# Entry
Amino acid sequence: MTLTDDILAQPSFDAAIRTAVAGVKAMRPAYDWVGVYLLEGDPSAGSGQAPSAGSGQGVLTLQDDHYRGQPTSHTRIPLDSGICGAAASSRETIVIDDVRRDSRYIACSLSVRSEIVVPIMAGERVVGVLDLDSDTPAAFVESDRRELERVAAALAQAWQVIPGEQPAGRRV
Ligand code: SME
# Structure
């Protein structure tokens, strides 16, 4: 069973996230921290529209069991903050080879050297982001990006098809 199949076989979106995070963490030793932040508080919720870029609307939130790695104090990240906020706002994957050279970066651990953030998109709607940190500089190459974008796509599909998780009208 592929990780995508495993994600889609889960009975809840919460379980799909936990499955994705555990599966991704096991992929490479260089993946030191793996987590999924979900977008909440988006005033456009229900309208089928994603928040506008740089608007600062909505907050990315990290639940206790939605990450593997060192605990972080950054459990709420506004859309106008951090690499996570930038990826969600731009709806584009962001790869940072050296986090010390990017002023947007919010440090969760001093040992982190590189980061990738992949938006989880259900159609045009931002559901959240898949965030990975590595203590290795430039740890994330094209093959990592492709694989992680597949996982994000599976999570977006899970968000749309697994019943009972979203209020009516939130589906794309
Ligand atoms: N580095 C992220 C914050 C989350 S921690 O890495 C877990 C950012 O800049 O958005």
